[in-house]
Design brief:
Strand content: 35-45%
Strand order of the largest sheet: 1-2-3-4
Distance between the termini: 82 Å
Structural class: alpha+beta
Radius of gyration: 20 Å
Helix content: 25-40%
Length: 116
């Protein structure tokens, strides 16, 4: 008696391993989780601000400089990193140089400083 192999049984594992493989490739290619998610190489971590710390969990805002493509200005990566004992999460944002400057002006206004 010949056994029948249902191709539908292999669809989920194939797509799952394809997704994981592409992500691992992007992680290795860009050198960081932020780079893999935003599609660029992080060249420098400029700084980090602790947003909150409650017991064992914490939240931080990281500011990083990303590599520029030929003929472009470097972009800025902002990422909110949350850490807890049984998990972690990261939400990255990629800003152009103009957007980063505009954000800095808005933050100065919100903090009560006058923007230049």
């Amino acid at each position: 008696m010949a056994s029948y192999i249902d191709p539908a049984e292999y669809i989920f594992p194939v797509f799952f391993f394809l997704f994981v493989g592409v992500f691992v490739f992007r992680f290795i290619r860009h050198g960081s989780l932020t780079g893999a998610l935003l599609g660029g190489h992080v060249t420098q971590t400029v700084g980090e601000i602790l947003l909150s710390k409650n017991g064992l969990s914490s939240r931080a805002l990281k500011v990083q400089k990303m590599e520029a493509k030929v003929g472009e200005k470097p972009s800025v990566a902002l990422s909110i990193v949350s850490k807890a004992p049984l998990g972690a999460s990261m939400v990255p944002f990629k800003l152009t140089a103009a957007q980063a400057l505009e954000l800095s002006k808005l933050l100065q206004i919100a903090a009560g400083e006058r923007a230049a």
